[in-house]
Structure prediction request, 363 residues.
Amino acid sequence: MKTNVIELFKQKRPVVISGPCSAESEEQLLSTAKELADTGKVDILRAGIWKPRTRPGSFEGVGVEALGWMKKAKEETGLPISAEVAKFSHVFDALKHDVDVMWIGARTTVNPFSVQEIADALRGTDATVFVKNPLNPDIQLWTGAIERLQGAGITKIGLIHRGFAQHQKVKYRNEPKWQLAVEMKRRFPDMPMVCDPSHICGNRDLLQAVSQKALDLNMDGLMIESHINPEVALSDKDQQVTPSVLDQLLSDLVVRSTSVEDASFREKLDVLRSRIDMIDEDIMKLLGDRMKTSEEIGHVKNDEGITILQPNRWEEIIEKSLVKGGIHGLSEKFMKAYLKIIHQESIDHQNIVMNKAGNNVVK
Ligand SMILES: C=C(O[C@@H]1C=C(C(=O)O)C=C[C@H]1O)C(=O)O
Prediction:
């Protein structure tokens, strides 16, 4: 028997998916599953069956035998089960063991050949498949994976934001890109979006804050790794928590309503939103004026045979704008991104001026 997990997402927020990073033994999996079920807060059991590891030689999962343990855990706890699939034979085994949700991992989503192989293996089934973001922040690649599944007739599809690989670990193991996740949700509004704080954080201490942020950004579910004894876990031990720690984490989350229907709240919101609309108008007008002024500078430069790009002037603008932005409560990260895009637009406008005048242009 399979649970319609997509329906579950329509009834509850957040849907909680939890279980060990890897199924290591029958005893480890069943005891973790039972404690998770006893919390009454977990909806779906997860476990890694085949583990795609960065380097060979580390624990690569038990393989198909662990699917038998998962099936047993499902019978004993009543929890639907989920597992990662990365190739044709995984899909075949998962279907055979009544896995309720399969997910495609970040390392697989990056490879259209692998995704297509999985989609072909699923053709003609009513499987539920969640797709993790690819390792690199490429929304087209993530979208392409969804399209391949849809092309194979799969209709029960969900998304998982697990963060993005980076050259240097700063705070997170995998940098969250919330805007990208929000954009993906906009593209596929009917698909549940799950956040995977465990892979974003790589460290259990950050899980609470990231889970809360995910809920505040309207994510529909959380996938959090748990282990009966994380200290002896064979993979990713720093990011796993015991079922009782998970229970506490979930109790401490504030689940805010997404509804804006209450009349007095609606009124307050409308007033503030109309103020935002007016400010946006002003900003656009000012930006338009700025670009027109830049075009005038373009004409002057063209007449004098001067290059568009003026690094010294631009450095001066960055320096003073970062200070002024700070005074107005704007972060350095925002100011840098904003200035970069303004500069590019300004250069584009001057390029057009120079193009029309028939002189050299910069890209
Ligand atoms: C507008 C100019 O051209 C470029 C665009 C700038 C801007 O938009 O502020 C600044 C320096 C130049 O790279 C300029 O030279 O002042």
About this structure: The first helix runs from residue 5 to 11.
